[in-house]
Amino acid sequence: MTFSITGFDSTGKMGVAVATRYWAVGARVPYVRPGIAALAVQAYAQPYIGYDVLNMMANDPELDGPTALQTVLDQDPGKEWRQVGLVDTKGNVQGFTGKETVAWSGHAVSEDCVGAGNMLVGQETVEAMTEFFGNNSDLDLPERLAGALQAGHFAGGDKRGQQSAAVYVVDREESPYVDLRIDDDPDAIAALMRLIQDTRDVELVRSAHFSRSRESPTVASYIAHRESLREEGLA
Question: Rounded to an integer, what distance in angstroms lies between the CA atom of residue 164 and that of residue 198?
């Protein structure tokens, strides 16, 4: 029903890009916390898998992502209906596909990402995502994840088509580096790609440009930013 790519880069950013033939996938699949881990929880998704893994790791800094995920899944009576991709800040990468997920379902793991999907045309989707991700380390992580998602779509993707897509990336702060969604569009992945490109240098969208930490920008920077918005007809 869904395919996703979960990955990290050499700068410390982590995130998820995801698409599906259903509404608002960005509200249900990505679970990401800076300094801890990023997960895509899908198929017959149970959101508390994401919450519980992140909370467990936050409470025990020595705990790695794969161990936390296995602990949570072992307590889940619906485990075989779930699918999860995970990366953590220790460099661990883990995929899980339950036996009851809808064919074609599966995942592909590389050293810095995991591609996963169910109800797909075939395994080419997950392989295309991890291949693109591995071959494009020069891209900023939102572009790299979204590009991998698009590669998966071109390789087959969700066999029912597409309706929503999203990318969620964190850097070092709790505020997301990028959080962009297309919630209802028959060409959602292409729309997401355009949105990512169009907002690349927009400070109010990319939090790393607007507020890198809890320290507020100066009044002068607010004034300058307001003027730039006025020039663009956005304020």
Answer: 18
Q: Say how far apart CA 170 and CA 164 lie, in whole Å.
A: 21
Q: Quote the CA–CA distance of 83 and 194 in Å, as a whole number.
A: 28
**8 Å CB contact between 35 and 89:** yes
Instruction: Note the pTM of the prediction, 2 decimals.
Output: 0.90
What are 138's two structure tokens? 């020069």
The terminus-to-terminus CA distance of the chain in angstroms comes to 40
Q: Nearest to residue 176, comparing CAs of 199, 143, 147, 205?
A: 205
Residues paired with 97 in a beta bridge:
83
pLDDT in tens, 148-198: 999 999 999 998 999 999 999 999 888 899 999 999 999 999 999 999 999
How large is the C-alpha radius of gyration of the chain? 18
The span from the CA of 78 to the CA of 182, in Å, is 29
Quick: pLDDT tens for 83-133.
999 999 999 999 999 999 999 999 999 999 999 999 999 999 999 999 999
Question: Quick one: CA torsion of 47, 178, 174, 214, rounded to 10 degrees?
Answer: -150
Estimate the crossing angle of helix 141-154 against helix 124-135, to 10 degrees.
150
Place of tokens 């993707």: 157
